[in-house]
Amino acid sequence: MTDSAGPSAPGPGGLLIHIGSQKTGSTALQNFLSANETALAGRGLRFLATGRRNISHNSLFRPLRGPDAAAIWADVAAEVAAHPDTLSIMSSENFFDRDIAAAMARHMPAGLRRACRVVAYARRQDAYLEAMYKQKTKNGREHLSPLDFVAKVGDEIADYRAILGAFADVTGDDAVILRRFERRALKNGDVIADFLGVLGLNRADADFVQPERDANQTLSRAVTEQMGALARHTKINVRELAREMILDPDGAPRRSRDVFTKGQCLQIMAHFADGNAAVCERFIKGDDGPLFDMADLAPDAPDRYPPPQEELALYAQAQERIAAAIGRIERRNRARLFRG
């Protein structure tokens, strides 16, 4: 299974909306687009200014679902129309949401809708739900157990058939470009190179600025759960704490595949199996394989969930590293340790 050839590159004019999803390298991609606006402009591409703050259009997520949606889409349409020979690009990982598709259906001008394409990166649901569990737990916004978290939000955020279908109902199936977020399915194993490939461009071109690569290592479940407890029960600034732990040479305990056991991963993927098959058939033309690589869940594959001894060590290590990071912040600037 490979998507190395990629879809046909979108032509000039119109709007391309990168909708994420979350935890698929969106920040790295947005950093690249922001750092290379001049070089991209020379190739007929514009990083849309309307609604963009810093490197993304994330700030539009709430407004596009509210009473200002029609006005925002009108502004977007006006900017796109002012550059008819240029492909305009929007990017927000938060747009991977049926409510955004519904807002497009209600408020996007018909002319813009006909000129709109959508590109999405989809991660295998068990890995995606693990990443989202860690993110929401770390920030103190979630304190459910992993399986309760899946029961609560799984169908809302990881039913790709429903989410992509909602966008396709607005733009048409052929205007939805789906890419698998798997290393061997991405061009050069890299989401930036892959996205540029969708546009018919080469990341290695000499005049592109290459932002520093992010190893994107995943914090352990033990770290995120303990940081979440601090966020809920203390005034400690967990965002500052997370930055400190990531930047420190010793770092924080990293671990993936420590939220769901192999058996639980199989259950999650079985739940989404029919939908994933439908997504593959509808949006990945000429590919009769499964939507995602499942080799690591084969009967003879080892369970990557940490055994009890490692699990205990991860929690002990998390306590030690969190305490050390708190101490460093306090010595350097105590005020930054606490939320206002």
Note the run of SSEs as H and E.
EHHEHEHHEHHHEHHHHHH
Strand order of the largest sheet: 2-3-1-4-5
Unreliable spans are none
Helicity range: 40-55%
Number of strands: 5
Q: Structural class of the secondary structure composition?
A: alpha/beta
Number of helices: 14
Shape: globular
| Residue share in β-strands | 5-15%
| Measured distance between first and last alpha carbons | 50 Å
Radius of gyration: 21 Å
* Mean pLDDT across every amino acid position: 93
Question: Can you tell me about this structure?
Answer:
The protein has 340 residues and is of the alpha/beta class. The protein contains 14 helices and five strands. A five-stranded parallel beta sheet has the order 2-3-1-4-5. Strand 2, helix 3 and strand 3 (87-91) form a beta-alpha-beta unit. Helix 8 (160-171) runs parallel beside helix 13 (273-283) and helix 10 packs across helix 14. The longest helix is centred in the last third of the chain and has 26 residues, at 308-333. The chain is globular, with a radius of gyration of 21 Å. It starts with 14 loop residues before the first strand and ends in a 7-residue tail after the last helix.
Question: What's a concise summary of this model?
Answer:
The chain has 14 helices and 5 strands. The protein is an alpha/beta fold.
List keywords for this structure.
five-stranded parallel beta sheet, alpha/beta, single chain, about 45% helix, 14 helices, about 350 residues
List the helices and strands and how they pair.
Layout: E1 15-18, H1 26-35, H2 37-41, E2 45-47, H3 69-81, E3 87-91, H4 98-107, H5 110-114, E4 116-122, H6 125-138, H7 146-158, H8 160-171, E5 176-180, H9 191-198, H10 221-233, H11 238-247, H12 262-271, H13 273-283, H14 308-333
Parallel strand pairs: 1-3, 1-4, 2-3, 4-5
